[in-house]
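re the bet — no i am not wrong, look at it urself. input seq straight from the record:
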Amino acid sequence: MKRIIFTLFFLFSISRIYANPVDRLIDRIEKGASGKFRTELVNSDKDFFELDQDKDKIVVRGNSWVNIAVGVNWYLKHYAGIHLSWNGMTASIPGTLPRVEKPKRRETDLSLRYDFNYCTFSYSMPFWDWEQWEREIDWMALHGINMPLAIVGMESVWRNMLLKLGYSEEEIGGFISGPAFIAWWAMNNLEGWGGPLPLSWYSAQEKLQKKILARMKELGMTPVLPGYCGMMPHDASEKLGLAVTDGGMWNGYRRPSNLSPTDERFDEIADMYYRELTRLYGKAEYYSMDPFHESPDDADVDYAEAGKRLMKAMKRANPEAVWVVQGWTENPRPEMADALEQGDLLVLDLFSECRPMWGIPSVWKRSNGYGKHDWLFCMLENFGANVGLHGRMDQLIDNFYQTKTNPLAGNLKGFGFTMEGSGNNPVMFELMSELPWIPGKFAKEEWLRGYVKARYGTEDPTIMEAWRILGNTIYNCPAGNNQQGPHESIYCGRPSLNNFQVKSWSKMRNYYDPAATLKAASLMVSVADKYRGNNNFEYDLVDIVRQALADQGRRQYLMTIADYNSFSRKEFKENADRFLEMILLQDKLLGTRPEFRVGTWTGLSRRRGSTKEEKDLYEWNARVQITTWGNRKCADEGGLRDYANKEWNGLLRDFYYNRWSTYFRALDDQMERNSKPDPSGLGEGENSNKTSTELFALALPSGPEIDWYAIEEPWTLRTDEYSSDPEGDPVTVSKEIIKFLTTER
């Protein structure tokens, strides 16, 4: 009897301790911290959270667990000065918390809050384990996300379906890509690159996805699962007798074929897919599909009928399902959208902070917006998971609050984070996550003051001045500038005589004085000793000093090339050496934080493997993606090399430095040759067989021709271990760099 009573008491105690999933989330921030809060779920048709006080406990009410989590985060930031971010999801919560003197309630009409781009799963999280996913789901809940994209393990659905269709394991391995390239396979861009996947990968990802979905649902989130829009292996015509369309080529890769939604066998294949998806992961209320992604209009395609057939297949899986589609370039095709019923389509306006399609002025403006269909205001912010400060604070705020009065925004249902890469520029994601809860338009400077206080737990005028400068310059990319993502570092680019963009499609253009980031970095360094050990400060210190050093590196590069063009050999040598020294200083700085070490990335990849062969495959995936991206054709002609460039410790020293030192040596050698003309004349020796046109070309100024891929590929094949453990002190190294940059030569 005593044992029964004890058991009942224990279970009752546990139920009180862990009354809800938000209590468990709080205890992951700091063990036992949930005892300082009382969280209350309240019925309401209106999304809200409310902060209150009951004796020594902070009371957080809301109409959903996610909204309660938002309330907890709001309290921690704006009352307790505790900022939880990707660079730190734990904190020491004071024993006595600041009181909520009077109840504070915040509401929003934006009830749908989305997270992720397909690319995020490859650029940021291809090798994540449950521990990392648990932290990310907590971050999502604290920032209001309630409908995240969930595509982990979709390759298991495809493998099982293809096995049932008669494909062998070997054939499937040639179709499904490796971990770092799953996103572009899922988006119908390529087959097989980075594979074949070992069988252990499928079982591990399936298990991981089930844990992810369970936690999301426990918190009241509604996951978005990947739908089916006709992708098939390129040989589906010969193998299965399907009347597929050849997908052609994409940046040097064979694309999968396409089974038209209007084909007589489409329903058969679609139903197989949804049955397998449901068997593994359950039914979804939302399915994500992007048919005809980044493909030109095809006069032979009946987009209206195709859309209806895709919708019907989804509805057979779940009659209540909604189709989530990206608003990106030509998609969703107007004919397709017009043919669907209101309520069946939810459009992600993918780049609302820069190129909104929903109806306000933009290079991608749609005159009638999305018509009758619901849509979400989304922030893309980052392409390729590149490292770099960047934002459009004023434009984001302006564009968002235009939705309050514009009739084309009548069907706006929420917001979304649609970044290609996660874990960077936390200030922009904090701003976006708070917008739905702030009813009226506000001044950027006012919001930044609150952010700085929350971020560092203090009000320091010097730090505030640094952020005021950043907010008015690098974080205020102006309207009309269509730059894609962070302001790129010259160190990461393939060398040439006219280096500007690192990647092919960045559309980068200078829009701020590089003196601004140097001034902000200098201000941060001037007070850095006071904030040693403050995790958020030290992370931002490294990131801001990194940006200043990258911006000054671009100026240094231009001086070096000017010396080459003017044939000033002594000055060229001095400036080239200084540029190379800057790369090594950057490497040293970034080595002080694990977030900026290539060893964190490669280490994750190796830990996902069980055998040496698996570890080597996954590390090769990791290394290729952030450098050449693909094979020689892809890297040299396809335009994808350096798309996922990273200013990371180890990568700077062993990859980027090697490229630049090779190039500067070649330029120096060229000047050496040009300073010693051949007395025998152009028509003699090695040039004796050249045509007059070729001889004339030799006289024109040009940089050396270098086989860059031959220099780059060896690094991708290495398996030497980089450590994720930080080395050195961020404050000390930051001081060294600012002294280097501000000392006159």
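see?? The CA atoms of residues 29 and 91 lie 6 Å apart. told u. also The chain is about 45% helix and 10% strand. so pay up
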